Amino acid sequence: MALTRLNPDGLHQPPGYHHVTVASSARTAYLAGQCPLDSAGDVVGEGDVFAQVDQVVANTLAALASVGAGPTDVVRTVIYVTDAAGGSLGDVWRRLLDSPLAPAFTSASTLLGVSRLGFPGQLVELDVTAALPD
Asked: Which of 27, 37, 53, 69 sits between 20 and 30 A of 45, alpha carbons compared?
């Protein structure tokens, strides 16, 4: 499998991600939104967006590993952060770029501020698509 990441002429230079990711893989994995839940299903880090980001990263790495993939196989991410998280969306972006999942965010990525997510106290969620290795 080969991934090609590019920024077409005429588009702005993005901060770390690419506008387009092309995958030659015939198989893909679509992860459910990864939430800051522990193995018991409880939201971690009540009110602490960084603790929640760290849990989302751990959950995403586990989900990718379950299908033989890793961060470098990710072709698209969508990051959702609630208004209640405090700070800036950029703070969440930088935390993700400092995590073991960082290579995933060099692909096509979108960062969104939202008013609410599915679980009470949830501040962040990550949607991931990966091209599976042959």
From this structure: 69
